[in-house]
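Model it.
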Amino acid sequence: MRRTVFFLKLTLLIGLCNAQLVFGQHNEIDSLKHALKGSGNDLSASKINLQLAKLYERVDLKLAIDHANKVIEYKVSDSLMAEGYNQLGRSYFFMRQLDSAAVNFTKAKGKLLEINDVKKAAIIDIGIGAIQLRQGDYNGTIKTLTQCASFFEAEADMLNAAKCYNNMATAMAELENYDKAIEFSEKALSIFDDKELIQYKLITLPNLAAQYLKTGDTIKAIQYNHDAEKLAEKENDKRSLSIIYNNLGSIYLDRDSELARNYLEETIALKNELNLKSGVEVALGNLGHIYLQNKDYDSAIKNYSEVLLLVKGKQRVFAFDQIADAYRGKGDYKAALAYAILARTLNDSILDTENRKVFNEIQTKYETEKAFREYSDLKVNNLEIDSKRRRNQNLLIIASILLLMSLAFGYLMHASVLRKKELAQQSFKIKQQELEKLLKTRELEGIDAIIDAQEQERSRMADDLHDNLGSKIATLKLYIEEIRNRMITDSYEREMLLGKLKYLADEAYKEVRTIAHNKNTKSYISKGLIIATQTVADQISMSNQLTINVFNVDVNQFISNAIEIQVFRSIQELLTNVIKHAHASVVNIQFSKDDGLLLVIVEDNGRGFELNTSPKAYGLKNIDDRMDKLSGSMNIDSTPGNGTTVILTVPI
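Modeled.
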């Protein structure tokens, strides 16, 4: 009997999380914003901005970053600037922009050390350790937090020491040193218990349960999960309960299937209520396992089909296999065979990728060893040849001295001249062949360049007509549908709509002219990618049929015109697709950057489509081609009834 492979992996972080509930937060924000308007000096404004950054951290990370930057811009004092950098680091951490978070934490620590505030600098190190943990640098995490914990122990600051212990325990668990992980987790739990820090205990208890389970001690794993369950129920912490129930469902899966099913169903209900995606696939997969064991094949198929939407790689292979087993149990051998083939095909693809990597490593090692052996053999042969040559030269010298020294010398000189002449002729012939080959290559490259330029020009004209004129005609269609669907009696409103139609018709006419003169792109892009996108969004939104919102998260650097043009064309194409096919009312376009990449997210609330069955339209193929030219990528996430999200990723 195959055991399900789904089990929730806990690596919760303590150090940056806030363990206090905040009430009346919006009222406090409004009060501070009012106070900011009346602040009389930079010091007061800087302090208020810092408070706003901390409050916005829980509701709007973009605004939190804006206010933290203002704290730094005032440059009132090193201590306030350090707080500003620290707040920036926290916000970027929660946005999963770990490199930016690390940079700002380092700046904050530097400022604190300049003013000799060693304790606050050590607190910053907790955040740096949390980043290393998220990045998978477990040894770095342990090194950073061990020094940090030693400092806090010397300062008798056991709360911050406990935060270090907890993250060190997570790193130890990732390194499969579960005994040490348990030791650090229990030290942290003892401190949180003494200080009655319930939220921290709710993080530590499930971690301890998972660590004990890894050692095979299911009794303690169950005990710690139940302790966490009681605490979470008392606090009405539904998010923690969803994690705890998921763990208990996995533990009881083969011990008490009915109890496991109850826990797993509770997990799914809570996660749906809280709109939490993480861990849902674990609960669904384990429920599917129970249904399969109880021969409830339809329910098993339904659960594993939902799992397929949430997992990748070998977990998809496992889900395909389970669905095949369920159909086999129903007696539907045709469907069982189809899913078994899907499982084997995907598994072969994964293995092929892994085997290719292993083969390349072996091939590289073999070639290296082969080259080394050849080099060693050649070195030995050269030594032997050198030895023989020296011996012959000695004999020749002795013979020449004994016989005819002058004649032997003349002969050697003549032979040397002939050899040099022969080598010179061979060298000239080789250089002549290389020159002829180079000229031929350049000639072919020139022909290819001419053909490529012609093809690019044809492609550009086709893309311009499809992208620019297409989007305006699609918008014009929206206006016409609005007139057709509404009975407009008010003359002023009718004139307004007719004015909009005339304006858009004029824009379409101008578009045709500018495409003919190859100036359309410049008119928009010369103002910048985001401004150009906002202009197009405003034009389409004037129809009152579709609202387009444009957000710039943190793109504030120069982007080359070539990249801007291709990205702008891609956005136009996506908007045209939304107007034609999506039946959406709202589109959000977001620009951000991450580690040298420009990220553009275009999200609509339309009807969506099936990714695996819908053929890729001409417009999406255009975008694929544009992304290939920029060494970028396009990812599409869509299901019927849930809208569509497209992510463009471009190196800048």
